[in-house]
Amino acid sequence: MDPVISIQSLEKTYDNGFEALKKVELEVISGEILALLGPNGAGKTTLISTVCGIVNPTGGKVTVGGYDIIHDYRKTRQMIGLVPQELHTESFETVWATVNFSRGLFGLKPNPEYIEGILKDLSLWDKKDTKIMQLSGGMKRRLLIAKALSHEPTVLFLDEPTAGVDVELRQDMWRVVEKLRQNGVTIILTTHYIEEAEEIADRIAIINNGRIELVERKDELMRKLGRKQLTLELREPLQSIPDNLADFNLELQAEGSRLVYDYDATQSHTGIAGLMQALSEQGIAFKDLATRQSSLEDIFIDLIKESS
C-alpha cells in the first residue's frame, strides 16, 4: 500500500545551530493510527510542524498524498488537520462560529450538517452557543479537534491531545479517533500516556535526539522486544542470591523476601524449569508466584536508554 505521508532524509537545524531533526525517514500508511513516541525535546513537535508546513525544513523531502509540502503547500495543507498542544483559544467567539470560520479558511462552502455532526461526536453540541473563553480546559481541547476536522482532512495530527484532560473526556476522544479511522482518516498522534498508544495504535515510531530509532507494528514490537517477569514470594527471606543461581537473571527484592526472574518469552527455553530445579536443590521454597508481561512503556524506556 502506498504511503499517504513520505518523509525522506528530513533535517531541521535552527539558527542557533540546534539540530532538531537529523535525516528522519518515515512513511505513514493510509488509514492507520501511528503513535509517535519520544522524550521531551526529542523532535516530535518539530517533525509534526514541518509536515504541516509550520516549520521550514533545512533539508530533505516530505510528500502528503503524493504532493510536496513546499511546492504544493495549499494542496497538502488542505489534506491535513492539526490539533496542537497549546490551547490558544481565549476568544469571545462562540464554538459554532469559530468551527465554521475554520472551515471557511480552507475555502470550503458552509456545511452546517457536517459541523453539527462533529460537535455532537465531541460532546460539544450543547456548548455551540457558548463563548470559547467560558469553556473548561477539556472542552477547549475538544474544540481544537473540532476545528482541525472542520475542513474534512484525510490526515489528522494529534499532538498530546489528552494533556490535561480528565478520564471521561479522554475516553470520548479515543472513541472519536476510532470512528475517524473507520472513515479512512489517517491519524498520527503523540502522547505521554503510553498506555493509550498501546491500546489504539497500529504502529509505533520512536524518535530520540532528532532521529527515528524504530518503526514497528505494535504487536510485532511487543512480540520481539517484550519480556516476561516471574516473581516468587519466598517463604523465608534470603540474605543474598546463592552462588548456584548466579547464572539466572535474578533480582532480590522486598528485603530478601522476593525473587524476580526476567526471561524472554519468545524463546523455546525460558529457563523456568531449570530455575525451579535449582531452587528446590537449595531448599528455597516459595509461597506464591506471578508473571508479568512487559508493557509498551517498559519497551519504550529501554529503547530510549539504549539510544541516549
Automatic annotation (TrEMBL):
InterPro entries xrefs: AAA+_ATPase (IPR003593), ABC_transporter-like_ATP-bd (IPR003439), ABC_transporter-like_CS (IPR017871), ABC_transporter_ATP-binding (IPR050763), P-loop_NTPase (IPR027417)
SMART domains listed in its UniProt record: AAA
PROSITE patterns for the chain: ABC_TRANSPORTER_1, ABC_TRANSPORTER_2
Listed GO MF terms: ATP binding; ATP hydrolysis activity
Keyword list, A-Z: ATP-binding, Nucleotide-binding, Transport
Pfam families on file: ABC_tran
Residue span(s) of domain ABC transporter: 5-234
Name of the featured protein: Putative atp-binding abc transporter protein
Organism expressing this protein natively: Reinekea blandensis MED297
